[in-house]
Amino acid sequence: TRSSGSTPCFSIASPAMAGSPDRIARTGNILAVGGPQSLQLFDVGSPESPRALGSLPGFFVGVDARGSYVYTASQGAGLAVIDISQPANPSVAWYQQPAIGNRNALATNGQIALVGGPQVGVSVINVSNPAVPQSVSSISSVASDIAIRANYAYLAGGSSYVFKVVDISNP
């Protein structure tokens, strides 16, 4: 649907979308939309007419995507790596339950994933082999949101409203 202003706006409303969308990430022409009841995949190769591809039930509040994988963080449910090589049938390639606390902030650069939460530290996980990620270390900072650019991680939020820049060149 186009908006009445000068900026085009399109809606991906879908009866199959369970719950409300919370986080999005794009890899290639696939848009991954996470929410409290499912992860939905859309083909956005033609932005004027996005097309629903597939979905996976679950609680997905942190979402990032690289190549054929979507990385998700899900409150107390941990980190999951979702294989989207067959977007009509996404599947869990790997899953890890966290030791403690809600983890809903996530970012990856394809080599490492940082997973954190507003009341827990940030886990550093090697995801260079998405089917067998390995815990590498942790960062003693809380994070409600995380971004990675080059060799730096940017952590924001938590109960003390922190903002940190962390060198991750040697995690």
What does this structure look like?
With 171 residues, the chain is mainly beta. Helix content is 0%, strand content 49%. It has no helices and 15 strands. The protein has strands at residues 23-27, 30-34, 38-43, 51-57, 62-66, 69-73, 79-83, 91-96, 105-108, 112-117, 120-126, 134-139, 145-149, 152-157, 162-167. The strands form four sheets. Strands 1-2-3-4 form a four-stranded antiparallel β-sheet, with no helix packed on it. A four-stranded antiparallel β-sheet has the order 5-6-7-8, with no helix packed on it. It has a four-stranded antiparallel β-sheet with strand order 9-10-11-12, with no helix packed on it. Strand 13 and strand 14 form a beta hairpin. The relative contact order is 0.12.
Percentage of residues in strands: over 45%
Structural class comes to: mainly beta
Helix/strand order, N-terminal first: EEEEEEEEEEEEEEE
- List low-pLDDT spans: none
Q: Give a quick account of the main beta sheet: strands, pairing sense, barrel closure.
A: 4 strands, antiparallel
